[in-house]
Structure formats: C-alpha cells, structure tokens
Amino acid sequence: MVKNRIEQKCIQKGLRMTEQRKVIAQVLSSSDDHPDAEELYRRTTSINNSISLATIYRTLKLFNDNGILEKHEFKDGKFRYEMVYKDHHDHLIDIETGKVVEFRDEEIEKLQEKIANKLGYSIINHRLEIYAVKKNK
Amino acid sequence: MVKNRIEQKCIQKGLRMTEQRKVIAQVLSSSDDHPDAEELYRRTTSINNSISLATIYRTLKLFNDNGILEKHEFKDGKFRYEMVYKDHHDHLIDIETGKVVEFRDEEIEKLQEKIANKLGYSIINHRLEIYAVKKNK
DNA sequence: TTATATGCAAAACATTTGCACTTGA
DNA sequence: TCAAGTGCAAATGTTTTGCATATAA
Question: A-chain residues within 8 Å CB-CB of B108?
C-alpha cells in the first residue's frame, strides 16, 4: 500500500496512524490549495464520514506542531492550512477572487534578515502577504 | 476646544461626533501602541464609563472603514488597531515579549511592487510581519 | 425633528475541551 | 493490554447584532 507524503512524515515522527489521520493526510496531500478546517471536514467526510470536526481541529494542531503543515491566516477570519513539503514561499492574495498565488523571492528574504539584524533581532519566521488585483482589465 | 487628529478626520469625513466616539478618538490619538478592543475598552472606560464594548467594536469598524485606523491581526488571535496618521510601515514582533517594533524599508516596498507586477497584479496593500527574538543574549 | 448611535443581552462564529467510549500498536 | 485518539455536545473567547431607548445635528 502506497503511503502519501504526509503519512510518511507522521510515521517518521512516530505518530499513531489512525483511520481518521490517514484520511486527513490523504486529503492534505492531494490538495494544492489552502483549505480551512471546515473545507477539510467537507473533503474528508466525502471519503470517510466517520470523522468529526473536533478531530479535524485536533489533527491540524498535531500536524502543525510537528511541522507537517503550516497554518495561515489571510484576512478572512479563519485559519487555513498547507503542507510544508514545498520550499518556503510567500503569498499574493487576489482580493477580488480570493485566489492565492505563491511566490518566492530571494532578495526579499535577504532584506528581511538585514532589517531584523539592524533592529537587533534574529528572525524566527515571517509572514508576507500581498493583497492585490489583476492588472489591465 | 482642541480636537485631536482622529476627531479632525471624523469631522472631515462627516461622521457624527458622539460623546463615545470623542473618547475613543482621544484614546487612540494618545496611544502609540497596538491595542485590541478589550484594551481600548479598558482605556476608554477609565475616562468615561458610559461606553460599552459593543460601541467600541462598532466605532473601530467605522474608523477602519473610513481609513482612520488600521486593523492588524498579529498571531495572537485578536484584532489590534493603530491610527493611520503615520506613514506606512511594517511590523517586527518579538515573540518572547510580544513587543511590536515598527519599521519601514523602501527597498522592500519596491520589491513587492516588482513581484506583484511580474505576477500580473497591482498591489492594493500588503502585510509584512517579522517574528523574531533579540540577538546575543 | 429624526436619522443615526447606543447599551444591553443574546447570537454568531471559529475553535477548544471534558468525558465516556474506541482503537492502534 | 492500555495509552492515546475519537465523537459528541457543551464551553470558550472574540466579535456581531436585534431591539428599545437616547442623542447629535
């Protein structure tokens, strides 16, 4: 039986693989967007309906604590999640459609280090979100 | 009677100046930090205790909608507010003490324009938060 | 005068938690 | 076997809202 990336990480971390966690891992692995808890609940129950919202939340917290996924909060009032098997990247949010575009820019990464440095700090992490609209319409 | 900056903006926008709004405007004008609704409630009621939390929320929304203040959501789960009479700036949050340091960097501003541009977007606004710890301790 | 703002308490909303039961290793 | 995970429903914490009353212009 083939294991998805998240399931592999769970095993590697020694997490107990319950039926529910497998389904959540599977859904997350095959998602390339940024779903919130409610949306994940919808996706998982369509595969296996013996999963509660509480378990979704507990599992998301577990995965987040274990560095398996990242928790975002774009300006829509709820948390959204994303696997962390990709390299670090930032987000541009289309405020008309809600679409999220990922990008990475080395210069910006370096500049932030420099700024924190100048202020006497070491960066732990950062959040850069650009809210924008499509050009030339 | 001298009017504070926020009160001036309200008048300029044609907002009705109630007793409550005056007090909230006064508190915000003399705050140079990033208080949340609960904290503002504390500060305003110490001046005039005929202000309800509901009014705080309604007034913050009103001021935000009118571009009089900015709403932030650092990673502590609540909204925090700040006047927008200063120039745009970003935030560095000390994750050990919760202290918020403001900074502005032209290069980063320009870079973001460039990135959005390359992706085919025009920036409406952005959010850059650096979470960091003090160096050499 | 009267449209708008307010206080209060109830509702809304996403998220968390206590507890009895179930399950993975 | 039994520590750890789960479902359910109730609790939480922040923010919003309906409604009767009060107030700014």
Answer: 108, 111-112, 115
Specify whether the CB–CB gap between B73 and B93 falls below 8 A.
Answer: no
**pLDDT number for residue B41:** 96
Q: What is the pTM of this model?
A: 0.81
Residues B12 and B62 in one domain: yes
Total domain count, chain B: 2
Q: Residue A134 belongs to what H/E stretch?
A: strand A121-134
Give me the CATH number covering residue B96.
3.30.1490.190
Q: Which amino acid is at B54?
A: A
Task: State the Cα–Cα distance between residues B71 and A22, nearest whole angstrom.
Answer: 38
State the residue range of the domain holding B32.
5-83
Q: Is the dihedral of CA B91, B92, B94, B100 positive or negative?
A: negative
Q: What angle is formed at CA A67 by the lines to CA A16 and CA A120, rounded to 5 degrees?
A: 150
Report the alpha-carbon distance of residue A44 to residue A47 in Å, rounded: 5
Q: Which residue is nearest to nucleotide D15 (CA to C1')?
A: B57
Asked if B74 and B117 sit in the same domain, the reply is: no
- The residues of chain A scoring below 70 in pLDDT are 1-2, 85-86, 137
Q: Which nucleotides of D are covered by protein (CB under 7 A)?
A: 4-10, 13-18, 23-25
Evaluate the CA torsion angle B118, B119, B121, B124 in order and state its sign. negative
